[in-house]
Design goal:
Layout (H helix, E strand, L loop, with lengths): L2 E4 L2 E7 L14 E6 L4 H4 L4 E5 L10 E3 L5 E4 L2 H6 L9 H5 L1
Parallel strand pairs: 2-6, 3-4
Antiparallel strand pairs: 1-2, 3-5, 5-6
Length: 97
């Protein structure tokens, strides 16, 4: 798995798949991120990370850590473009060039 930090934020990472263990807090608390006001039953679910009504900027995180609030973005061309190319310097594809 490739999980690279985004330098502007110590708690943001770009990754090719969902991490099992959060690289920031070393806990197994990474869950699928859900945007919006959760229903009462969703708020207490352990299998999702609730972003709430205010999205991340410039794109929504794909996964989030329920322990330390770290954000994980799927490594896609669209996400790289939305992040302004910041993460291109820290992926193995760019390092090979």
């Amino acid at each position: 798995m490739k999980c690279n930090p985004i330098p502007e934020r110590e708690d943001w990472f770009i990754t090719d798949r969902k991490p099992t263990i959060c690289p920031r807090c070393k806990q197994k608390e990474v869950r699928k991120a859900v945007l919006g006001m959760p229903l009462e039953e969703d708020y207490f679910r352990d299998d999702i990370f609730v972003i709430g009504c205010i999205p991340d900027f410039p794109i929504n995180r794909t996964w989030g850590c329920r322990n330390c609030d770290a954000a994980f973005f799927k490594d896609t061309p669209r996400n790289k473009a939305a992040l302004g190319g910041l993460c291109l310097l820290y992926t193995s594809d760019a390092a090979d060039e």
